[in-house]
Amino acid sequence: MPPKAPTERVPGQRAPGERTAQVMLRFTPAEAAELKQRAAAAGRHQVAAFAREQLLARLRHEPAPRAAVDAVALAGWRYEVNQIGVNFNQALKLAHTWGNSGELLDGARGLWDALESARVQLARLAERVDPT
After folding, report:
1. Does 78 reside within a domain?
2. Domain presence at residue 19
3. Is the dihedral of CA 113, 116, 122, 125 positive or negative?
4. pTM reported for the whole predicted model
5. Residue 11 counted as domain residue
6. Fewer Cβ atoms within 10 Å of its own Cβ: the N or the C terminal residue of the chain?
7. Alpha carbon of 23 to those of 19, 30, 32, 52, 89: distances in Å?
């Protein structure tokens, strides 16, 4: 019988670095639901592997793996924020060109409020992407 190739497994023999130790964790239904939700948000299908990564990253003081980012949604947000900024700059340019018209200043204030709202929403998105 020819010798086994190095990649083949011998019955009863463990591969180096194979996980064999077990730790039992118990969660409340709410905690389990939150864990599943966070794993799904990170694009992970194996909740136990996600939980292990998060726990070990904290213990080792390493940054935990970030959640997957929806590139299409992020690009849409970038476009929207850019458009608000363009409109804001145009309103300010008109205000400086034509004087301090009340309507233009009110419009600039409205654009500023929209820009601030978008900034807050982007910050919330960033929290979901990097929950640490």
Report:
1. yes
2. no
3. negative
4. 0.40
5. no
6. N
7. 11, 20, 16, 10, 58
